[in-house]
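Journal club prep — side note

Before the paper discussion, L.F. wants everyone to see what a predicted structure for a comparable chain looks like in token form. Sequence:
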Amino acid sequence: MQTNLKFIWTSDLNSQEYRDLKKLRIAVFVTELHGDMPTEIHDEDKCKYLTVYEQDQCISGARLLQLNPETVRIQRVVVKHNYRNNGIGHKLLSELESACLNTDCKKIEIAARYTASDFYQALGYQPEGDTFIRSGVPHQLLFKNTIN
């Protein structure tokens, strides 16, 4: 695993990369984790998507939503089940953060499932505010400043 990863960006909702990532997100967030479809596909046309392939298989991805000129939110971070705990999430976040650093972004936010907050904190994200419920699941808002 992870020998030949391809990271492909798109904003085109008709692209194969977007369709592959959406299929993976639905499989994980809606089917596996019992989320709801309206939440999963909210704001699709306002985001940039990063799809990760190993060979020709979509194994991971996420989307970026520009909240304002200085703040970007990383959303819908997903890794295919049999690829978890193998460093894919770290590589994905590194690529996402690099894209943010190439803009005027000063703050990166993630509204993560509470069970994933330790993963993000290990990457330097700080909790902000209290936990909240989204689609019946506890979440934590986390942030990282990009300018010290």
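L.F.'s comment for the group: The chain has four helices and seven strands. Keep this in mind when we get to the figures.
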